[in-house]
Amino acid sequence: MTEKLLRYFRTRQKEAETEKLYDTQCPFCSMQCKMQLIEQSTVTRKKYQTVGKDNPTSEGRLCIKGLNAHQHAVHTDRIKHPLRKINGEFHPISWDEAYALISEKFAAIQTKHGKNALSVYGSATITNEEAYLLGKFARVGLETKYIDYNGRLCMSAAASAAAQTFGVDRGFTNTISEIPHTRCIVLAGTNIAECQPTIMPYFERAKENGAFIIAIDPRETSTTKMADLHLKVKPGMDSALANGLLKVIVDENLIDESFIEERVNGFDEVKEHIATLDLNEIAEQTGVPVEQIIKAGTVFGREDSGMIFTARGVEQQTDGSISVRNFLNILLATGKIGKKNSGFGAVTGQGNGQGAREHGQKADQLPGYRSIENEEHRKYIADVWGIKEKDLPRKGVSAFETIQKIDEGEIKGMFLMCSNPVVSNPSAEFVKKALEKLDFFVVVDMFISETARLADLILPTTSYLETPGTMTNVEGRVTLREASFPVQGEAKHDWQIICEVAQVLGKEKYFSFSSPEEVFNELRIASKGGKADYSGITYDRIREKEGILWPCPDEDHPGTERLFEKEFAHDDGKASMVVVPNTPEIPKDTPTVDFPLYLTTGRVMAHYLTGVQTRKSSTLAAHDFESYMEIHPSTAEKYHIQDNTLVKIESERGSIVVRSKWSETIRKDTVFVPFHWADSQNVNRLVSKKLDPTCKMPGFKVSAVKLSPVAN
Ligand SMILES: Nc1nc2c(c(=O)[nH]1)N[C@H]1C(S)=C(S)[C@@H](COP(=O)(O)OP(=O)(O)OC[C@H]3O[C@@H](n4cnc5c(=O)[nH]c(N)nc54)[C@H](O)[C@@H]3O)O[C@H]1N2
Ligand SMILES: Nc1nc2c(c(=O)[nH]1)N[C@H]1C(S)=C(S)[C@@H](COP(=O)(O)OP(=O)(O)OC[C@H]3O[C@@H](n4cnc5c(=O)[nH]c(N)nc54)[C@H](O)[C@@H]3O)O[C@H]1N2
Ligand code: SF4
Ligand SMILES: [Mo]
């Protein structure tokens, strides 16, 4: 063998053995499963595999999305350069050119129309550091009051309900490890089996230990299959159903009188209201038989521990926040909160759905859950940021209202990071038209999403493999995502992009960070003394302890595993019950002669949100490559819809065409369509603009629709 050939074989052999490991956390749901990417390089190609890593929350498990997450991250469609739209087409430009363009356009807009003509739209998929920076960027960098984020469409109802009832909002009041030991579990409008799959063993262990599980959902799902009792509620009627349960509990005297006496305000008013309600009427309104309401209420009331979990089925309603409050009424009346194995869980959605709502992306909030309208809070944050309190903008408006203000011409420019509102917001066609009116639109994404298509400038960002930072998971546990995969092309981290844009706008002195850890250390100070206090959490501590649950007010504090053991977070230490009407203040869509069916929307296991990422993964796309409509066969026959055929679904707002899927397991008055697909399959074309008056959540879960078969 020649020397040359030998060298060739040696190199090949060496390369064949090259294996690199990269630790990270899943980019998708709130479980934030810890994982490791294994990269095996051969001469010709790289091979990737994702495996789970042990940690206190997901215990090393991964679901199908996590196992295949790397497929989108290493996809060739990733944007690698800033892209500027010229005559309707995107052209790569340099970062310097991109920043110069932003500086010129933003200045022009603000000179002509005022500071508040610019807006920021953020996300709960970015890290705590980035969420914190984005809030600061809007207020200090752009000096605008208009910032909000996609979590408004996700966690806002649960967040406002918990804040009003308990005085603070952390998704789970207890750690996940208590779930197996509780005696009765209510799963209201949550499909954990498909949406947080790695949480399931906790519930399965509870079942093995004899817990009674009650599921509330208009459809049978992999989650309801686990339940001992499934209340197949009419879409949108959860408030009334919770009133029914509460009535049974009060009438059967299953309340905890001493707990109520010591720790709760407002019980008497609720009791009085409940006395005026009729169970038969509630059964009629909710579609749930009286016997089932009685069974659920008595079991929950009688057992000595219990937990209630809510998710978007209950929350994404125009009465979502008060509806959640009614489930919290049940916990308070039975004294099942602030105790071991008893508590509440609003099952967080996005990976950083918890942390991203605590540090200032919300229109009315400052870091640490401080209020932007509270003088003391304003002063504190202004001092941390080194600005004058009077220069700190006041509160802005919610995500969807921001889009309405663009439509009305009040907002002219937008800086959007990590969201796809053209697909995810209600009345999608309206949203698209509104965003098209922007004078200048910057989108920061990894891909050219449906929303990015409308941008004037797209800035390429890094993925969960590449960006380190902290994420606060479903439990309220602050975790450190150690990501170190090489950055592709010229992409930059979201936190870097925010700092660099601020710099070109002349605000470098407020954004001179050189690592996520530096940002986190400022966030710690900004949150200190706030309700979501992170000040005792450091990178070293969470590296070592695998996460810390907030509040954590000093470096010797172990974190808070269980909330409200001694008192609630309101000034008087008490929780607050509220009277909830059976029928909501703002009428929801109800079936009419023209639009005779309920439409509800949600998720499937293999896809994530608007599908930009999961549709890029060959394995996940193969699971469900198109949208569909779940319909009961007897309803389908009534409207001449064959199984597995195209059907047009229309509401007052618009129409879509998807494939039918017959299923005996859905209510006969309801059809279901997932929202992971865009354009003519985008179910949000059908959803109304109405918002919950308290938290501004859209009513994604109830629309009235009609169906017609599409001729071949
Ligand atoms: N596979 C997957 N997992 C995800 C996501 C994803 O897109 N895909 N997204 C993540 C995010 S951001 C979120 S917010 C969570 C969402 O997690 P979930 O809230 O669990 O998901 P959804 O499917 O939106 O809704 C849950 C259930 O509510 C039911 N429902 C519909 N209308 C009603 C109603 O009126 N009342 C009641 N009681 N139930 C109703 C639906 O039938 C559905 O089974 O999941 C997270 N995990
Ligand atoms: N009909 C209906 N509509 C709904 C819902 C429903 O149940 N029914 N659910 C609502 C809920 S709960 C949610 S959370 C929203 C979510 O709605 P969106 O906010 O629109 O969610 P995504 O599809 O995750 O959009 C994220 C975008 O950011 C990009 N991206 C991913 N990671 C990063 C990153 O690290 N940095 C940056 N800069 N970009 C990144 C992705 O490529 C993608 O284009 O949808 C809501 N809309
Ligand atoms: S999607 Fe959620 S449950 Fe699945 S691996 Fe990712 S974080 Fe874990
Ligand atoms: Mo969400």
UniProtKB/TrEMBL annotation:
The protein's matches in SMART domains, at most eight in alphabetical order, are given as: Molybdop_Fe4S4
Enumerate the UniProt keywords alphabetically. Answer: 4Fe-4S, Iron, Iron-sulfur, Metal-binding
Gene Ontology annotations for the cellular component aspect, listed alphabetically: membrane
- State the organism of origin: Salipaludibacillus neizhouensis
Would you tell me the protein name for this molecule?
Answer: Nitrite reductase
Q: Would I find Nuclease among this entry's keywords?
A: no
Look up the record and give one Gene Ontology term from the biological process aspect. Answer: respiratory electron transport chain
Where does the record locate the signal sequence feature? none
Record's Pfam families?
Molybdop_Fe4S4 (PF04879), Molybdopterin (PF00384), Molydop_binding (PF01568)
